[in-house]
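Incident review: delayed structure delivery

Summary: a single-chain prediction request sat in the queue longer than the usual turnaround. Root cause was a stuck worker, restarted by the on-call engineer. No data loss occurred. The affected request and its eventual output are reproduced below so the record is complete for anyone auditing the incident later.

Affected input:
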Amino acid sequence: MRLFNGIMVAVLSFIPVSKVTAEDNSLTIYSSSSGYNTNQHQQLNPQNIPGFAVVKQSKTMAFKKGSFELIYDDVTAYIDPTTVSFSTPNNTNAAVLLDQNYQYDLVGSDSLLQKYINKNISVSYDIGGEPNRIDGQLLSTQGGLIIQNQDGSLVTLRNWSEINFPQLPGGLLTKPTLVWLLDSNTQKDQLVAISYQTAGMTWWADYIVELNRDKACEFNLSAWVSIVNQSGKSFEDYGLKLVAGNVNQASSSSPMTPYRENIQMSKDQSFQQESVFEYHQYKLPRSVNLPQNSTKQIRLFAPEDAIQCKRELLFDPFLNRQFYYARPINDANYLSQQETPVTARIHFKNNSNNNLGVPLPAGRVRVNQADSDGHLTFIGADRINHTANNQTVSLTLGNSFDVNGERNQTDFKLAKNQIQERFEIKLTNGKKTAETVTVREPLYRWSNWQISDHSHEYKKINAQQIEFKVEVPAESEILLNYSVLYQWPNYSN
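Output delivered after worker restart:
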């Protein structure tokens, strides 16, 4: 065994492994990607990636009669050893599991040198371009190597080209390893099946929307899943399942056993969707390869056409902000003026009547539309959370270039136990066609309010918001005015 410039070179022997099928080896990956910045996963510590996987593996291994140690090193770097299950499915009485050790003291230049303190090593180095070698006892690695010659003299080396070690010291491993102490009644090879939970893996959905240029609001949809593997292990020829939903994890939890109902088959070789408890599972009807440090994309379902939607231009000065108050807000200048871009949005219903009606896992949605030359132009992107059947999906694509809004306070009167406030909202439309703008207004000074005057019809959205639908003519502007009266009991200021 040798270390060349900090790189370990070793020859290891493995127990022969029988060929297994995708049904024997499988991955179930759980996503917690809501709010997850998918562009930064490569910079994250794999243990902090918001997701996890349950790994199931089968492997034929050599057994010994009586008490012996069985070493299993084909696991991920981020395994949770408390979730490991062990069995011999073809011979349930082959052995009794006495204990399990998870060993992760891995070979590295520093750990190897530490193991060889007070032991003999051979170091090659250069002096003035001339090669030299020293054989002696390693005393310390602090600030370099301190080596004692056979005559008792000491040599300090800060640079070296090669270190020769007689052998791999006990306790060091090349990768994380499970070691089981078994009491076996057979010397025959046995099929060993294990399962465990690991960090370093997640998945999310990627949706591609192509808006129809010639229709009011219609689009085609294709969907893919992106799978990240930074677990420290490659997976070859594995069955694959993806689970969407916020799964609660208790400490030292065991891998979840799915409960199946209401299976729905997707088209061709895309994923099959089914309900699992309060979540949704997507099973791929073929095996896959997931190399370590990779991101793989697989089609979620076949493309769908002619999905109907609704366009919306929204002027929301406070971006759907929620206000909380313990007392009336009587500062006249509080949020009295606001100029915010008008955002462009589309909404669509996720149901069978709209060529959908399938659970949509959380992920990114990119929207494109063809220009006059027929070339697709990217027009915006947004994220969706896990979206069930029959729910409405809303996508914010960006800011309108030609339609703008401006909000100003035009009157404020503070009296005993009440406030009278008036606003004017100016909407401008630079397009050659009329546009309808949704104006969302918060009533944020106190919980007891009423609209005392308004230039346009409004609708109450909730306890804090009202909404106007205002048609703005082509190349024109419209002024929207309304007054609100806040009142509170005598005991409040």
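Verification: The longest helix spans residues 109-115.
Action items: add queue-age alerting; document worker restart procedure.
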